[in-house]
TrEMBL record:
Protein origin, superkingdom: Bacteria
Protein name, entry field: GcrA cell cycle regulator
Residue ranges with Low complexity bias: 151-184
Ranges for region Disordered: 45-89, 151-185
InterPro entries recorded: GcrA (IPR011681)
Segments of skewed composition (Basic and acidic residues): 57-67
Pfam family, one: GcrA
Residues of the signal peptide: none
Length: 252
DNA sequence: CCCTGATTCGC
DNA sequence: GCGAATCAGG
């Protein structure tokens, strides 16, 4: 059964892709395989990204023009993408890591988000860093106005997140006690992700959700007032923060 | 081994 | 159009 590539998913694919996340990472967040991501990206036309290899080194190689020249042109300001989908997992409060949101933004502390030069190396939104306690957002009804009160409430369960599929991962620390001698791929991946816990906690003053295609005149960031502690406004936070699910099986 | 993206080709 | 299988470099 073929994946339904809706505008929604395609938009997210584009976004994540443009953010420089790896295909596998994008796939994880979209609940598809990296192959699906790559394949779709190809068909969508968006693709030029520093690839570790170039296939077809055999048939012919006129040895005239530098093949990497084209690549370099396409992606000049991309020295080291260094994605690192920083999922800020609070080292403390292990009991609260139930439904972890996955901020789709690299850790780079991009200061001036609004003045994004666009183009390939679009500015990376400020590091999201999920707060230890997923604070419940204000009534989704009114989003434009910032919450008058930062309310740092106690463990308030997952916000009203139900725009798309989102099966929470029942993390039961005690239950999953038995640990394999050989960590699985998923486990290691999760660990890797969890390992990143930058003590930084900086929230932009405007929603940095990208709108439009970078490089095009119309491209801009949302700019709305973000949720406290988050880089996105309530509206886009729903799109940006998707429930953590590593496994492609277990389709929501 | 692991990772990455690229391409092919049956569906 | 889709994506698993496969390839290929790091």
């Amino acid at each position: 059964m073929a994946m339904e590539w809706t505008e929604e998913t395609i938009a997210r694919l584009r976004d994540l892709w443009q953010q420089g996340l790896s295909t596998a990472e994008i796939g994880r967040q979209l609940s598809v395989t990296k192959n699906a991501v790559v394949g779709k990206a190809h068909r969508l036309g968006l693709k030029p990204r520093p690839s570790p290899i170039r296939r077809g080194t055999k048939a012919d190689k006129p040895a005239d023009k530098a093949p990497d020249a084209a690549v370099a042109t396409a992606v000049p300001p991309t020295p080291t993408p260094a994605p690192a989908p920083a999922v800020a997992v609070p080292s403390a409060d292990p009991a609260t890591i139930t439904a972890k949101a996955v901020p789709v933004a690299p850790p780079a502390p991009a200061v001036k988000v609004e003045e994004a030069p666009a183009v390939a190396s679009a500015v990376i939104p400020a590091a999201p860093v999920a707060p230890p306690q997923p604070q419940s957002p204000p009534p989704a009804a009114s989003v434009d106005v910032a919450a008058p009160k930062p309310v740092e409430q106690a463990p308030k369960p997952a916000p009203a997140t139900a725009p798309a599929v989102a099966a929470e991962e029942p993390v039961t620390p005690a239950a999953k006690a038995p640990r394999k001698a050989t960590p699985t791929r998923a486990e290691r991946a999760a660990a890797a992700r969890a390992a990143v816990a930058p003590p930084r906690r900086r929230s932009s003053q405007s929603c940095c959700w990208p709108l439009g295609d970078p490089g095009t005149p119309g491209f801009h960031f949302c700019g709305a007032t973000p949720l406290p502690g988050k880089p996105y406004c309530a509206e886009h936070a729903q799109l940006a923060y998707v429930k953590l699910r590593d496994r492609r099986d277990n389709v929501a």
